[in-house]
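Hey, I'm writing a tutorial for new members on how sequence and structure tokens pair up, and I'd like a real worked example in the thread rather than a made-up one. If someone can provide the structure for the chain below, I'll link this post from the tutorial.
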Amino acid sequence: MGDATATSIILDSVTDETPEPATRLQRTLAFTAAGLVIISIVCFFVLMIGTWLGAGPDQGSGKGIWPTVELLPLIALPLALILILVLLVVSLVSRSRRNRKSTR
């Protein structure tokens, strides 16, 4: 009989601590940051392959889409880092509010 009570208490405490689903803002920040990182990595590999195939600055790589491919990682990676930090702050504020409500 004692084991059933202990199991019941454990199950009650485990089910009470299920995390709340992410908000729309959190999902948007996470997917945007992930997308920017993926695009930056793809651009980085395109630059490496293009340089390996001879598309250096003296061969006309400053024309067409190449300037965009070169600048995109320089802008997207810091922006992704900022979005990740904003996501961290939003998550901490949400968790803090949830803890404050549960202690009252």
